[in-house]
Amino acid sequence: MQKFQVSPIGTVHVNEKGMSIEVKREYLPALQALEGFSHLNVVWWFSDFDSEEARAVLEVPQPYAQAPKVMGIFATRSPVRPNPLALTTVEVIHIDYENGMIHIGYIDANDGSPVLDIKPYTPSLDRVETPGVPAWCSHWPKSIEESAKFDWESEFLFSEDQ
To answer: Is residue 136 within 8 Å of residue 157, measured between CB atoms?
Structure first.
């Protein structure tokens, strides 16, 4: 099996000041021309769930309230997966180019999670006008903005370690 090596380009910070991504000094030139993008796609590592045991999980019992009784891990947003990669679209609040700090509205990563890549969100490549979803999640919000007001607690059935 071919192995791949990835190295973090930064770190997620979650604290009383809010949420941000700190980009390592050597990658500061890569931030050029991000001004004007309201959102970014952040590829990050579910480092808190990176274990041999977690990587072996391929099916999970009903993780969402209206989901099928058993689901394949690829049909979930679970951090437990063969390769614990995550992708989150984040709103850019402010970019401090000199210090490599990207202040963001929200990210579903824990403090200290490694960031592997950042890409600008562009509607021509990232937005789907009429996406199809299964009936069990068709009542979920249709946008990030709506998600902020949605009662996600009543949807998730899995525990913190799934």
So the answer is: no
